[in-house]
Amino acid sequence: MQTLTATLHFPNIGGGSMISTRGAKAVRSRDSVLYALLHPLVWCWVKVFYLFRLRGLAHVPRTGGALLASNHASYFDPVWVGCAVLHRQITIISTTSVGRVPGLGRLVRSLNALTILKRQGFNKEAIKEFVRVVRDDDRLLLIFPEGARSADGALQPTRRGISLLAREARVPVVPVLITGSHEVWPKGRLWPTPWGRVAVTFGAPLKFEDVTPAPGEEPDHAFSRVLMERVAALIDSPDDTVPFLEGLKSILWRE
């Protein structure tokens, strides 16, 4: 895995403060006020214009830290997953390229983003900070194991970061499958389609230590393989979507 120089921005109400990963300790995170205000509005928007469907929410822990491991085919993927977790706020990882867009960097940091300088992977110091966020701050951290958006919407090979995080953090990893997002806003398209059909499905969580490698298989590879198999299998999940008003009530009252 290639190394990188990483700088983290930890979210707060008005935007993140910059913390170097070298010897730094994370500021204990708080829920974002802006996130709380936007969540019900985004729920209404996606239900109306994207016929948004949500399945398996019971698999997302109501308390404690966890990793949400999702496929990645669209610029909107963090929005779909964040909107789908009705009872908690999630934390996302963005790169400094986002911060170069005027005003956008501050916006994503105020919406629970950790911003890093990325070079094809995370260094050990960045991994330590991510582990601290989920294990010590009890956050839900959204991870895309594939590392980059899929060009055609199909599942891609995973990178090593998810196995490293799962092994070090020792927290549940929830498989997540997003369908329909590639059609709405695929890689390379300037603007999203203003309507469509999108669904987010959560699967039963697993832990790194629960996966038994095949003979001769490395534990990290085994975990990544099993995780993506779980993600792919979610396509056959039963249709138990959350109705509009029930979802809105859960967001407003954190039920």
Would you kindly provide a written description of the structure presented here, covering whatever features stand out?
This protein has 255 residues and is of the alpha/beta class. It has one domain (7-21, 29-253): Glycerol-3-phosphate (1)-acyltransferase, CATH 3.40.1130. The chain has 9 helices and 9 strands. A hairpin with a 6-residue loop joins strand 1 (7-10) and strand 2 (17-20). Helix 5 crosses helix 6 and helix 6 packs across helix 8. It is globular and about 50 Å long. Residues 1-28 have low confidence and may be disordered.
Notable characteristics:
9 helices, 9 strands, 7-stranded mixed β-sheet, alpha/beta, 255 residues, single chain
Secondary structure elements and their pairing?
Layout: E1 7-10, E2 17-20, H1 33-49, E3 53-55, E4 66-70, H2 77-84, E5 90-95, H3 96-99, H4 104-109, E6 113-116, H5 124-135, E7 140-143, H6 161-169, E8 173-179, H7 181-184, E9 199-202, H8 219-233, H9 244-253
Parallel strand pairs: 3-9, 4-7, 4-8, 5-6, 5-7
Antiparallel strand pairs: 1-2, 8-9
Helix pairs in contact: 1-2, 1-9, 5-6, 6-8
